[in-house]
Amino acid sequence: MSTASRDTAEDSARPGERAGRPRTGRLSLPPAARPYVPPLVLYGVTKLVGLTIFACLLEYAGDYRKKEPRFGGGAHWWDVLQTWDGWWYLQVAEKGYEPRPLQPLAPGGLFTVQQNSVAFFPLYPGLTRGTSEVTGLGLYGSAILVSVLASFVAAAGIYAVVSTLAGTRAGTIAAGLWAVAPGAGVEWAVYSESLFVAIAAWACWCVMTKRWLAAGLLAFFAGLNRPTSAALIGAVGLAALVTLLRPDSRREQGVLGPVYAMVAAPLGLLTYIAWVGLSMGDLTAYFTLQREGWAHYFDGGAYTLDVLRNVAVGHNDYLFAFSVPDLLGVQLVIALPFLIALMLRRKPPLVLVAYTLASVLTVLGTQQMFGNTGRYLLPAFPLLLAPAAALGRLKWPTLAVFFTTAAVASGWYAHYVIFELGIP
Q: Which N-terminal stretch is annotated as signal sequence (predicted)?
């Protein structure tokens, strides 16, 4: 019997077992929530171990004390978690946006226009500000709270998707793998990745379970969180279109749900991009700002190829060169074809295939900091499907050794490397 079959048989047996037990009056979780306890516990414990190792490494090196608070420094180790992009998000949460015409810089430098906070999408800083006003926490504490809570929602969504396809054991393992994935250090930092993955995972699950209204709404919110939401929006739209084109599925699911998902999904992203353009007096202002203010733009993979060639021969005279993060990024890129092939071999639903391939294409085809490849690929959680299913064949004592080792190691490669040896 396969792992998925055993999980299904076990799950179907439990309600009957519970029905025969007398009620004790003790507080207990609703039956629908109980399957999420193991993956969330595994995720939380694994993240705590990685964060603890990260803190120990920061204190041992002490380098963060010599850096500017905005650029990886601070008085305490936890201050590092609010630097770089975190600084921008906190600025938006505190002051809002100040859209103004693009300001040219002196020629000859890497950046040709002045950076502006409108490059950072509003959903995450908006939730941070709202959480601060409701709870009384400071903006930093509120931002961390939003990230941590969103990371658990994301882990639950990953579990829901993977367990649907490969069984509860694989779903639990997938949640744990996401905690130790390269770049996972930003999941509990002032970054928007956890919130985005939470939205993306549940949007994919909604498409898989034909909840089109929820899928369209989630994709709409994703568009207010990150520009890379285009991959999710396209995947939801494609799945809806295919549903409409197939007579059997159209009769079964109707027309209104898929049409709503197709229409609603892109509105968040388009609305924000249009607002930036209108506010700054140039409809292409957002893309110009990304290209000229951050040197991030789609180049068809030319930059990725340049990094791969330079790292292969030991050169570091390319843009955004950081030796250790880049070497890890190269290893991840080499593993991608294998991970994609394994995912496709399990024949996942169209929405997962389209979302994953579009996400990978976006990452590899964009000029950005190559050392952050692991962070940029965090949303591509369907790549965990095959590894989680394979690891599901192991016994829990063996898995305990694996996750303990991975959690400890992740404090270095998923946290310290990107925050201290590179720029997250």
A: none
Residue type at 167 in one-letter notation: G
* Assigned domain for 19 exists: no
Q: Is residue 21 part of a domain?
A: no
Residue-wise pLDDT tens digits, 372-409: 999 999 999 999 999 999 999 999 999 999 999 999 99
Closest CA to 308 of 336, 335, 327: 327
User: Is the pTM higher than 0.85?
Assistant: yes
**Would you say residue 217 lies in a domain?**
yes
**Listed residue (355, 343, 384) closest to 155, CA to CA:** 384
Q: How far apart are CA 12 and CA 28, in angstroms?
A: 19
Residue 352's domain spans which residues?
36-420
User: From CA 81, how far away is CA 87, in angstroms rounded?
Assistant: 9
**Domain presence at residue 5:** no
Tens digit of each residue's pLDDT (9 = 90 or more) over 123-133: 999 999 999 99
- Reduced 3-state DSSP string for the chain: CCHHHHHHHHHHHHHHHHHCCCCCCCCCCCCCCHHHHHHHHHHHHHHHHHHHHHHHHHHHHCHHHHCCCCCCCCCCHHHHHHCCHHHHHHHHHHHCCCCCCCCECCCCCCCCECCCHHHCCCHHHHHHHHHHHHHCCCHHHHHHHHHHHHHHHHHHHHHHHHHHHHCHHHHHHHHHHHHCCCCHHHHHCCCCHHHHHHHHHHHHHHHHCCCHHHHHHHHHHHCCCCCCHHHHHHHHHHHHHHHHHCHHHHHHHCCHHHHHHHHHCCHHHHHHHHHHHHHHCCCCHHHHHHHHHHCCEECCCHHHHHHHHHHHCCCCCCCCCCHHHHHHHHHHHHHHHHHHHHHHHCCCCHHHHHHHHHHHHHHHCEECCHHHHHHHCCCCHHHHHHHHHHHCCCCHHHHHHHHHHHHHHHHHHHHHHHHHCCCC
88 in Cβ contact with 79 (< 8 Å): no
